[in-house]
Amino acid sequence: MIPEATRVLAEQLALTGNPSSLHASGRAARRVVEESREQLAAAVGARPSEVVWTSGGTEADNLAVKGLFWARRTHDLRRRRILVSAVEHHAVLDPAFWMAEHAGAELVLLPVDSDGVLVVDALHEELSAHGDEAALISVMWANNEVGALQPLDEVVALARRFGVPVHADAVQAVGQVPVDFGASGLDALTLTGHKVGGPGGAGALLARRGLELTPVQHGGGQERGVRSGTLDAALVASFATAVSSAVASQESFAARVGALRDALVTGVLQSVPGAVLRGPQSGRLPANAHFTFGGCEGDSLLYLLDSAGVEASTGSACQAGVPRPSHVLLAMGVDELEARGALRFSLGHTSVAADVAALLDVLPGAVDRARAAGLAAVS
Amino acid sequence: MRVLAALSGGVDSAVAAARAVDAGHDVVGVHMALSRTRDQFRTGSRGCCSIEDAGDARRAADVLGIPYYVWDLSEKFEDTVVADFVSEYEAGRTPNPCVRCNEHIKFATLLDKAVALGFDAVATGHYARIELGDDGTRELHRAADAAKDQSYVLAVMGPERLARSLFPLGDVASKEETRREAAARGLSVSAKPDSYDICFVADGDTQGFLRSRLGSQPGEIVDESGTVLGTHDGAYAYTVGQRRGLSLGRPAPDGKPRYVLSVEPVNNRVVVGSAADLAVDVVLADRAVWFVAPSPEPFECSLQVRAHGAAARARATVLPDGSVSVSVDGALRGVAPGQSAVLYDGSRVLGQATVTAAVRSSVGSAAVGAAR
Fold first, then answer.
1. How does pLDDT run across B66-76, given as a tens digit for each residue?
2. Could you give the CA distance from residue B371 to residue B271 in angstroms, rounded to a whole number?
3. CB–CB contact B72 A323 (8 Å)
4. Is A306 in contact with B116 (Cβ distance < 8 A)?
5. What residues contact residue B349 under an 8 Å CB cut-off, 6+ apart?
6. Interface test with A, best of B37, B38, B113, B120 (most A CBs within 10 A)
7. pTM value?
């Protein structure tokens, strides 16, 4: 967490008060919550009334997918198609699959190109054929694995023509690229704290004024009745502080880290035979670099790099921790074996040129060794 | 040394890893994901492939402060251990999947990958001792605790694999000592129940598992003279020495219980007889693996044919084709083709081979359990 967010969290934790209570300490907590709401809204181009606090990105995504579907269907029974890109985070994909299995929805996975970017023509075709059956569209602002920025302007323009609400998971985008909810034309947008140097367990769904959302969590009627549950003033204050700070430093962060990332990509492609950059050359998150190293198991590389002091990430694993080929890479047309050798390098505020040099120093040897170790499970 | 500690999620492997850390090694924990279906939650004392076990393995690594990885060896496990298990039963033999797992997975795929990644050795929670012989060779010996000894299932690995293996629990006096040590180290698996069953048969119903793979294959149950005594739903579900589950309508003439003497996959028959008919004193075995180059002459040893059985005094002869003939003093009962035969000299493992037949020398060549 960034120091400012930690300070605010600690400060507020020392105070008591339920923001829903009417006594003095309750009113004080309420004030913190509302000021945080204003602060967050200002940082991302939203109105304060459009902010719905949640426990994080996953809850916000669930609320968007389920809440929009049920709200739309209440008015028009034909609207049962949920349109999501094939590279969405599981927090969007899994609720969408669940709704198809349990709530009468029809799931439409929108294809992406080999860079992981939504094929807008496919959305156009889908809406032309079934526009009056669409309940919602959910397309992420930027992909968390391969960093691809998605063509949301085009998605929103198309969706408007067919009267379909659009949700975007912007968890990865805030602080990395400019995010302006009002200017985006989106109907709903997901944010979370821990990706911007804020606390875990805090997030928000921005929901356009007048957007109908059926509540997923019922209770005391907090947050416009859309998301019941006692608010934690300390968490939301710290979260808003972190978002605000990340947005303020976004431009300089993107310039500095983007240059480092470019050096990393160039270096890796030059020094490692068979390395393939995944995701677009341009139009990607500045801190993201993603490669596949054919013939390697990602977790072998992970181990070899980790023991050399470099931390990377392979992507997702199942509950038991078994590495799984990424659904994002598979949707991009990467074959399963190649996808097993995937590795993502994320840069951050503390990254410096020496870190990139250290990686380039050990990576070629690690890839050689991992290739020698082979794909044990399939040999 | 750089040591890969295989962490099953149980207490033994956790303490073994801890001891490897204490010994000053650079230890990394690896949990092998072996099950293809991920729904094998632990029930009772079963299963080594569950989500709970993976979580317990991770917790142990956390407590020990070592890196932790999950390696997905499930395809290899299915293709070797599970497929072998099914096809062996189908062929009328009695496989030991733990032996095959040690042969194909733990001390093959896992070890090879570890070595390729730069590890010097693999440490497991098996109860067995490695001792240095007078000439400097590494010898595999029974564990200090005879009740927990697992040298029987390890013998298949052979000497080259042994050279890259560590069994830190070999000198533990008892399982209780392991549990006490785990508790003292703050390992939360200290009180976890032992696993006894076959890990990929989650509910412990081996016959049901085989039926799901092999389907219904009705056939006859006969006595040694060929008289039909009953029927069965698949000869593969029967094991030499088995007494229960025969469901024979007619009692034996002598009123004594009947046992499976052999399984004949070719004509899908199960042959039953008396306990006395089960007795054998010569065991033939092939696919031999030796820790000690065997003498061309017959040599004295002891023979063990099941994981939790006693060893019998025996005399072994290596035949020209490399297979082994072992004569035991007295008699063994219920020796089935497919079982692992391990030869010992005292506590030291000499070699291992797979039983092809067990016969009674006293009545000539009457083959018991010969299923080919």
1. 999 999 888 89
2. 11
3. yes
4. no
5. B139, B140, B141, B142, B151, B154, B155, B291, B342, B343
6. B113
7. 0.88
